[in-house]
Amino acid sequence: MIATKEIRVPCLFEAPGAIPLNGNTRDLSGQRATMQSPQLAIAATRKPRLGDTGVLTLTFRAPGAPRETLKVQARVAHLSGIFLGLQLNLNLLTEPQKEAFLRLLNSR
Fold this sequence. Notes:
The protein is built from 1 helix and 6 strands. A 6-stranded antiparallel beta barrel has the order 1-2-3-6-5-4. It is mostly beta strands. The chain has one helix at 95-106; strands at residues 10-14, 21-28, 32-36, 53-60, 68-80, 83-89. The model has no long low-confidence stretch (mean pLDDT 90).
């Protein structure tokens, strides 16, 4: 199990039928992520709902490495104000993608 770390990286969460949410992660682990998005405060928009599944795109750069983009399948676990809690499914990542995820967690 990977411990939860306070990691701030740009991210995007896209779920079918909901607005795409741009923001930053607040914390990240091998099982979950919390993202902050001001778009969650906009009234009259179709926000993700509990249980919705989608893709979390993380953009980061480890020290001395090129910029990387990683897409992770995720399910909405909680929603509170401008915070979205996501349950991550790392099992669907390829080995190189898992290595990139570990670089992200270990670079901060």
